[in-house]
Amino acid sequence: MIEARNITKHFGTLPALLNVSFTIQQGSVTGLIGPNGSGKTTLIRIMNGVLGANAGQVMIQGMNTSQETEKVLSICGTLTEQSGLYENMSGRDNLLFFADAFALKCPAERIDELVELLEIQDYQHRKVGTYSTGMKKRLGLARVLLHRPSILFLDEPTNGLDPDGIQMVLRILRRLNVEQGMTILISSHVLTQLSAVCNDYIFMEKGRIVEKGTEQEIIQRYQSEPRLEVEADMPNGWITGAFSPVAANSHSATFQLSSREQIPQLLRQLTESGQVYQARIEGNDLESIYFAIREANAHE
Ligand code: ADP
Ligand code: MG
């Protein structure tokens, strides 16, 4: 388990993180989502113990990251935006070099495993300088997995990748999570790319956490006043007792409800007076909610 307690970080007088607290359960994949400058990289560096906080602490499996940094780093792998790879060496030689630095036992076997997992067989002997961004990202990932970490931090791993590259990285991360139970934290300024792989989210804005939880928890929290868009045949029009639409034409209408509980009531009334073909709750997907959260915080 990872626990951040009241992390505050200032650079000079400027606050980069303000009172940030959260818990990450073992085996989860968490998306750390926020625009540029919201504090994601700073937070990851503090979680790794490579940067000190002004206040608060991070505990990883019971260890304080600022006090037991070495031990923490031995169970964590971190892929930063700078790959830290040597461009004039081959991919495989890079891995051999870092395996040596970690004093890894049986480095060749471990490297073979990773080369296969990350699908870099075909170009492992080519110089890294000739790699595409996606290839470098995968080699970088192999590098941080060398010492078999059980926790993986990835700072904007999909940045600069094309859609195929993004899918490939996400597929590998899913595999690491499912097959090895790896706990994964992925930062990104784009929510859409991560929704296929994350089960938990932390939304950041200007150094603060503005929302967190599982996708379902977040959706439930914002679903208090749902809008229902209905496609139906209503021979006697859309007047349905307590409900009247905010917009309507002959075959569809939108209803503004005051609570979730009204959804089944409205649907019951509609089906009693006509044929309902489709009903959709508007704005209850994570993307729309995130957009609304960002809007709300932009004015603060
Ligand atoms: P993100 O990764 O979400 O884009 P960062 O953590 O990089 O955000 O930055 C958060 C804030 O802290 C920004 O305002 C940034 O300018 C500032 N910052 C980050 N690192 C430093 C640093 N080493 N020195 C001064 N300011 C920094
Ligand atoms: Mg960053």
From TrEMBL:
Pfam families to which the protein is assigned, alphabetical: ABC_tran
SUPFAM superfamilies in the record: P-loop containing nucleoside triphosphate hydrolases (SSF52540)
Domain ABC transporter positions: 2-231
Membrane-spanning residues: none
Gene Ontology MF term list: ATP binding
UniProt entry keywords in alphabetical sequence: ATP-binding, Nucleotide-binding, Transport
Similarity comment text for this entry: Belongs to the ABC transporter superfamily.
Name of the protein: ABC transporter ATP-binding protein
